[in-house]
Amino acid sequence: MRRVNSTCCLQPAMAGPNMKSIFNSSLDFQSQDNLTRTDHGQPPIDFIWQLFGANVIAFVASLFGNSVIIHVIRTNHSMKTTTNYLILNQACADILTTTLQTFSYFLLSLGSKWFGGLWGDITCKLLKASVVILPNFSVWILVAIAVDRFYAVTRPFMTSPLSRHFKKTVIFLWVWSIASATYYILLAKLEVRTDGHYYCNLNTFPVEKKHADAWRAIGISELVLNVFLPLLPIIVLYSIVCLKLWSRDIPGEGTNQNERQAEALKIAKKVTRMMIAVVVLYLLCWLPFFVMFSRSILRYGYVNVNPNLLLFIVWLTIAYSGLNPYVYLTFSQKFRNGFKLLFEDCLGKVHNFLSARSQSVELEQI
């Protein structure tokens, strides 16, 4: 049995908190190590293209779906609410996530070659840090949405703190997410090898006991601060919201006020179902990774994982960004109406372009 360093084949696929302790350490693949690296220390080309193809699918789905969500919120006046603006920020982060991951796999297919100089060093650090920054920002956006829904349901006549300090909240979440990736920024390193090319890598995981203990502490802190801590208020707040909504009696018909209250309650339930579905999707896509990550912490960065299973687990975290917008399109009639209008507008423009083109050809023939 030999240890296989997975940095060359799996490290660019990282998406989530402190992946260094998993993907930049030695993964014991036992007899399956030939699937993940060649004799020269590089992953086989078919494995690289599997990773790249899976990310291209997630990227296309994310780019299309999240662009629709952003367009609908920006162009529809009735959609300009605090919750929807938070969803818009999440959509932007999802596009960045899938774009950077696809770009990482493309670089991997080129042997992870980079470019030198100051900008090479800066962009290398940003790319490695982004795999922590963007997922952390997304999960804290879910917390912010839960807080906003809590105020909307339990205190409907009170403006939520997020509405009053929306820009400050978003800026704080970005600052916190970037601060959480400080160790990644420090560890990312631009190296020049004997072939004269630059390579963007992370420093080797320390194997000495004292350093391993330090990294274990960092990993535990990451789990607590950016996994368990945000999930706790999400679960508590949505539990309170559901209890409040589904324990209310629907006002009887007969007056305009009762009808408005019944409609408001119906809308609140729909929005709550939609956001709970997003949280459930997040758990389905990220829970396997969190389990694997927890195992790696307990074993000081060493995990015994089938490489195909590892590929699927990592891809799930990236797929979340591609699937997320379709939850909104499925649960929200307003998002679907916005998509329908956008689709009809695009068809109209294509039809007008083709008509103008046809008329131009006819005039030229005359």
Total count of helical runs of at least 4 residues:
12
- Which blocks of ≥5 consecutive residues have pLDDT under 50? 1-42
Quick one: overall form? globular
Cα distance spanning the termini? 78 Å
Main sheet makeup: 3 strands, antiparallel
Spatial order of strands in the largest sheet: 3-5-4
What is the percentage of strand-forming residues?
Answer: under 5%
In total, the number of strands is 5
Secondary structure blueprint with pairings:
Blueprint: E1 4-5, H1 7-10, H2 20-23, E2 26-27, H3 45-75, H4 82-109, E3 113-114, H5 117-154, H6 161-164, H7 166-180, H8 182-187, E4 188-192, E5 198-202, H9 209-246, H10 256-298, H11 307-331, H12 333-365
Antiparallel strand pairs: 1-2, 3-5, 4-5
Keywords:
366 residues, mainly alpha, three-stranded antiparallel beta sheet, two-stranded antiparallel ribbon, 5 strands, disordered N terminus
Task: Give a structural overview.
With 366 residues, the protein is mainly alpha-helical. 73% of the residues lie in helices and 4% in strands. It contains twelve helices and five strands. It has a three-stranded antiparallel sheet with strand order 3-5-4. Helix 3 crosses helix 12 (333-365). The radius of gyration is 24 Å and the shape is globular. Residues 1-42 have low confidence and may be disordered.
Outline:
The chain is mainly alpha-helical and 366 residues long. It is built from 12 helices and 5 strands.
